[in-house]
Specification:
Layout (H helix, E strand, L loop, with lengths): L1 H5 L11 H19 L10 E3 L2 E3 L1 E5 L13 H13 L3 E5 L15 E3 L5 H11 L3 E3 L4 H10 L10 E2 L4 H8 L1 H10 L7 E4 L2 H11 L3 E5 L9 E3 L2 H14 L3 E5 L5 E9 L5 E9 L12 E3 L6 H18 L3 E9 L6 E7 L4 H10 L3 H8 L27 E7 L20 E7 L2 H12 L16 H9 L5 H11 L3 H8 L3 H17 L10 H9 L4 H7 L4 H10 L5 E4 L14 E4 L8
Parallel strand pairs: 3-4, 3-6, 4-5, 6-7
Antiparallel strand pairs: 1-2, 8-11, 9-10, 9-11, 12-13, 12-15, 13-14, 14-17, 15-16, 17-18, 19-20
Helix pairs in contact: 3-12, 6-7, 8-9, 14-15, 15-17, 16-17, 19-20
């Protein structure tokens, strides 16, 4: 204001937040002085967090193997342990799952192979006497423990690190979350919380059908689903109340785009969005069962910035310290959006975002829980700059879930808001088509990529059944539909998948048809082979389409000088040298990075 008034830049510049930063620095110095007189604090190991020296930390891992927990949270827990050890903090882990990295020798200083339950956690705390506890690295299981024991932690002499339990309770209680969003004028879907079937029916009549039913404190969308009438509502509520004491009856936005942002915030209120992701499938399928693309491909810059600003405002208002995930529903025909939920913990999407960007979200989140500022943490990619930056990607990542539904009898294969996948694969490339093909082949060795197949019968009834009521074979149904002559608009009407994705997939089918016109004795043109490789076709796939063997195609390709390029994950847009060995192969390049 002073510079604007005088018309010239003069005097010291005071940035927003400078006074608060100075106050925090003075407070930290005072804590150091206070603890210096404490005999027990003669050992200066550990970190001072909110006036207490933290030397020993208990990390809650995820529970035993089941859909919705365990394996997908191994990444976050092991990264947190590495971060704590780097700070010289003694780590204790509770995790009953022996088949994980975080329980391996050499990571945690002590590991308890016990169920992650209130009784076991209470006993370990009494025996180990830790100074702090992390509840945000073990998925929903660990989060629920934090909520159940919130009134006991102070009496047990343990401090909750990272996001406060009060914030976690707001994000988990659907009614409180809706109220918190209303305080800052943000939009959630019209909803009512219910603790009985009768309350749910009253709420449904007020909102109107169709609805989505969500269970609070539930694992992987357990007990959730869509209801188009009262009979379906009652059936869903019976299932939901078996897993949770509360359900949220919410307006259905099925068919809207689903967008996610991974957000990081420190105790000094520095806040960044690390990665944004877009679901290939529209809203209505659980994120864990959906194909996910990062960064988003169909958002305009205006939409991207609108949702990013909202994410930062929401996370600051909630008071999250560490990492969290915010999910949106975005109307594809307007700029209307609605906040679905905030996961105030490391989620399976966080592991995907970390590997997609090279930004170690769990590692950084663990340090933020120790009150270390974002601008004090080193960027692992450049090893020179700080972690207070938003990655910029010059590549595309596609995640495809893996299902083993054939192993279960009497289980519906239809995908909905409750998660059924047991794993996922990730592919990296320079274009959506290349990455999609690579991801499909990674799911199962029997898959050749996106193309004509025998997994879904080529009849209108079978195709339209699969497109309108998706199962794990939906992507193969899209391929056969395009081969049968369905237009992009027709498939969009049946699936609500964005036309941009469908147009890209149509391009793969057109290349497939062109390859299929060549007989075994006809020479393949260089331009066609190059285009096929840049679109992600494998040598084996090209061989099948052109009636020859894989080695013939390989020799032809190498004769044309068509070979892949090694590219390096560089999330700082080459502004600083990257020192990472995180590499991928692509045909959409002109030079090697290494």
């Amino acid at each position: 204001q002073r510079c604007l008034t005088s018309g010239q830049v003069s005097g010291p510049v005071e940035f927003p937040g400078m006074a608060e930063a100075a106050a925090r620095k003075a407070q930290a110095a005072q804590w150091e002085l206070d603890l210096a007189d404490d005999d027990e604090s003669a050992d200066k190991a550990g970190r001072i967090v909110r006036g207490r020296r933290i030397r020993k930390v208990l990390v809650l891992g995820s529970g035993g193997l089941s859909i919705g927990q365990a394996g997908e949270f191994d990444y976050s827990g092991s990264q947190a342990i590495k971060a704590l050890k780097e700070e010289g903090i003694y780590t204790v882990l509770i995790n009953p799952n022996i088949a994980t990295i975080q329980t391996s020798k050499g990571l945690a200083d002590k590991c308890y192979f016990l169920p992650v339950t209130p009784d076991c956690v209470r006993k370990v705390i009494r025996h180990e006497r830790p100074d702090g506890i992390y509840c945000t690295f073990g998925g929903q299981t660990a989060l629920n423990i934090g909520v159940k024991l919130k009134d006991e932690f102070a009496g047990l002499g343990v401090q909750v690190l990272g996001t406060p339990i009060e914030t976690i309770m707001v994000t988990e209680d659907r009614e409180e979350f809706a109220s918190a969003m209303a305080e800052i004028g943000e939009k959630c879907a019209k909803s009512h919380a219910a603790s009985s079937i009768e309350e749910a029916v009253v709420a449904a009549n007020d909102i109107g059908y169709p609805l989505i039913i969500r269970a609070a404190y539930a694992l992987g969308g357990l007990g959730s689903g869509f209801a188009s009438n009262e009979e379906e509502l009652v059936a869903l509520c019976r299932k939901a109340f078996a897993a949770s004491p509360q359900v949220l009856v919410e307006r259905s936005m099925k068919g809207w785009k689903e967008i996610e942002y991974e957000v990081v915030r420190d105790a000094q209120d520095n806040c960044i969005t690390v990665c944004n992701m877009e679901n290939f499938d529209p809203l209505g399928i659980h994120t864990g069962d959906s194909i996910v693309v990062a960064p988003s491909q169909t958002l305009s810059d205006e939409d991207y910035q609108m949702l990013r600003t909202t994410a930062v405002n929401v996370i600051r208002h909630l008071g999250v310290v560490g990492e969290c995930n915010i999910q949106y529903a975005l109307n594809p025909h307007s700029r209307e959006y609605s906040i679905i939920e905030v996961n105030a913990r490391l989620s399976r999407s966080s592991a995907l975002a970390s590997k997609a960007t090279g930004y170690p979200l769990a590692f950084v989140a663990a340090k933020l829980g120790l009150d270390i500022a974002l601008n004090e943490i080193r960027n692992s990619v450049t090893r020179e700059t700080t972690a207070c930056f938003e990655p910029s990607l010059d590549y595309v990542v596609v995640k495809i879930p893996r299902w083993d539904l054939k192993k279960f009898d009497r289980v519906s294969k239809n995908l909905s808001s409750a998660m059924k996948s047991v794993g996922e694969v990730m592919a990296i490339g320079r274009t959506f088509e290349e990455t999609m093909q690579e991801a499909i082949r990674s799911v199962d060795t029997s898959f050749d990529g996106f193309g004509r197949n025998t997994y879904v019968p080529e009849t209108r009834e079978a195709i339209e059944e699969e497109l309108t009521k998706p199962t794990d074979l939906r992507v193969f149904a899209i391929a056969n539909a395009l081969h049968m002559g369905y237009t992009v608009d027709e498939i969009h009407e049946l699936t609500a998948i964005d036309r941009w994705f469908l147009c890209k997939l149509r391009g793969l089918v057109e290349t497939e048809r062109q390859l299929n016109t060549f007989a075994a004795d006809q020479a393949l043109p260089c331009a066609l082979v190059r285009r096929a490789k840049q679109q992600g076709f494998s040598d084996s796939g090209i061989a099948q389409l052109t009636r020859r063997n894989e080695m013939q195609v390989r020799n032809t390709r190498e004769g044309f000088g068509i070979t892949p390029f090694v590219k390096q994950i560089d999330t700082v847009a080459a502004e600083f040298p990257a020192h990472t060995n995180y590499l991928y192969l692509t045909y959409n390049a002109s030079a090697h990075d290494v």
